[in-house]
Amino acid sequence: MKFKLPCEGVETPFYYYDMELLRSTLNEIKECIAGSDVHVHYAIKANGNPEILKVIADSGFGADCVSGGEIEAALAAGFSNDSIYYAGVGKTDREIIFGIESGIGCFNVESIEELKVISELGERCGKKVPVALRVNPNIDAHTHEYITTGLEENKFGIDMRCLDKAVDFATASDWIDLIGLHFHIGSQITITEPFALLCERINALTEYYRRRGVEFPVINVGGGLGIDYDNPDENPVPDFKNYFDTLISGISLTPGQHIHCELGRAVVAQCGSLITQVLYVKEGIGRKFLIVDAGMNDLMRAKRFMMWWDRCANRPMYSAKVKNYPPCVAEILSRCARRVRMVKAWLPLIICGSFPVLYSSGENMGSHAGNIIGVWRAIARISAGIYFRFTTRRNIYSSNHLSVIIR
User: Fold this and answer.
1) Rounded to an integer, what distance in angstroms lies between the CA atom of residue 233 and that of residue 309?
2) d(CA 252, CA 248)
3) What pLDDT, on the 0 to 100 scale, is given for residue 396?
4) What pLDDT is attached to residue 244?
5) H/E/C letters for each residue in 191-212?
6) Which residues partner with 273 through β-bridges?
7) Three-state SS across the chain?
8) How confident is the model at residue 375, as a pLDDT?
9) Cα separations (Å) of 209 from 37, 212, 215?
10) How many angstroms separate the Cα of 203 from the Cα of each of 65, 181, 244, 251, 254?
């Protein structure tokens, strides 16, 4: 990550996005899928910064959305309507109608109950709705328990024992266009075995329904490809080649079928960092505590998944060279007791006013930001050479609340 902090007026915390790395990542994906039947949709929930969305849309990718607001953001950023796929277990009628009227490419349906609602709303809108059925394949992704989504005890998708009923309803409905099957087995998957097993499940299902006269043009494997949190400098771009090779060689496509992927973290995580400032260095018994001006409202992932950031850097106040002090173990704490332990880091000797940099934070960094205890949200800055420019403005407390008063 290359940038210079200005000498005066540095306002922290802020999100920093390395657009050069983002473009390199996108180019690597395009090279890996060139000439194949693979289409990539960017999972907007990973990071919905408008500047990032525009770059990804301009690269020719589709969008994976999980709310009406994300569909709106995708359209505003320039994603083509038919490249927008809409997933999520709790789609509201209003959101479904918005997606239908916007002409999006596909609804990834999570249940028979949702399928019936979409059929009714399609009839109300007078449009046949393209649908893919999300299947729960009962595959262990060997990842964090909070982000495993493909086991039968998880809330996501249709159990394979109920799939016939869903297919029968969809094919019988005048307002459903059943175009595919959808899967998503989990996130931050760093081994190929779960994906290879998924390919086997897909082949078995498509062959079963082919014998019943049902074809699925869209085979959507979801996302899940992880990144290297331990060595972001050495591996800033995930191993896309191995990932796509596994899918392309493992899924037996028939003429007219295409593989669709929904990548989020793998696209943006390494290009984003959270820059915070040390307010105090508190000397504890046997350890130091760095009291910083960022917290879990700025980077929720650390708290949600009990993560440690073992990869941090220290940026000096005036872009001077960092001296090579012996590393010390420190814990970074937010400046409020309600936003507790964030990070464990090996850092050079830190002084008040230093700028710790939390790497590999581009995924969920801004999209999960909040205003707990009224703290102002971090702003976003986009790389421009070795300097940066603003893309968002810091909000104030009075803008954090919308109220409806019923008299």
Assistant:
1) 14
2) 8
3) 47
4) 97
5) CCHHHHHHHHHHHHHHHHHHHC
6) 16
7) CCCCCCCCCCCCCEEEECHHHHHHHHHHHHHHHCCCCEEEEEEHHHCCCHHHHHHHHHCCCEEEECCHHHHHHHHHHCCCHHHEEECCCCCCHHHHHHHHHHCCCEEEECCHHHHHHHHHHHHHHCCCEEEEEEEECCCCCCCCHHHECCCCCCCCCEEHHHHHHHHHHHHHCCCEEEEEEECCCECCECCCHHHHHHHHHHHHHHHHHHHCCCCCCEEEEECCECCCCCCCCCCCCCCHHHHHHHHHHHCCCCCCCEEEEEECHHHHHHHEEEECCEEEEEECCCCEEEEECCCCCCCCHHHHCCCCCCCEEEECCCCCCCCCCCCEEEEEEECCCCCCCCEEEEECCCCCCCEEEECCCCCCCCCCCCCHHHCCCCEEEEEECCEEEECCCCCCHHHCCCCCCCC
8) 61
9) 21, 5, 7
10) 26, 11, 16, 6, 11
pLDDT in tens, 370-384: 555 556 667 776 665
Asked if 191 and 238 count as a contact pair (C-beta separation under 8 A), the reply is: no
φ, ψ at 330 (rounded to 5°): -140, 155
Q: Which residue has the tokens 């910083």?
A: 292
Which pLDDT score, from 0 to 100, does residue 273 have? 83
Between helices 50-58 and 68-77, what is the axis angle to 10°? 60
Contacts of 372 (CB under 8 A, 6+ apart): 295, 296, 297, 338, 339
Sign of the dihedral through C-alpha 96, 102, 103, 107: negative
Q: Which residues of the chain have pLDDT under 70?
A: 1-10, 140-156, 300-360, 363-377, 381-407
Comparing CA positions, the residue from 304, 357, 274 lying closest to residue 14 is 274
With contact defined as beta carbons under 8 Å apart, do 352 and 279 qualify?
yes
The string of pLDDT tens digits covering residues 197-244 is: 999 999 999 999 999 999 999 999 999 999 988 888 889 999 999 999
Closest CA to 259 of 41, 26, 99, 30: 41
Q: Can you give the pLDDT at residue 146?
A: 43
Whole-prediction pTM: 0.83
Calculate ∠ Cα 42-43-44, nearest 5°. 100
**Nearest-angstrom CA–CA distance, 52 and 58:** 10
What is the rounded CA–CA span in Å between residue 347 and residue 329?
Answer: 7
Residue 399: per-residue pLDDT:
43
